[in-house]
Amino acid sequence: MRVQQIGQPETLVIVERMESAPFLLRDQWVKDLEAVFLDDLDFAWGPRIRVSR
Length: 53
Fold this sequence. Notes:
Layout: H1 10-20, H2 22-32, H3 35-45
């Protein structure tokens, strides 16, 4: 798994944004970073209702 964000202080902010504003996060994320890293972090965060992309 490519979850490089785990253990970084920024992870808490990213996870909070995944819960509160997933569309906004994904829109901003894909402008600068590969979506696969966000997908991996989303998967590692655990089961919940995932928004279709």
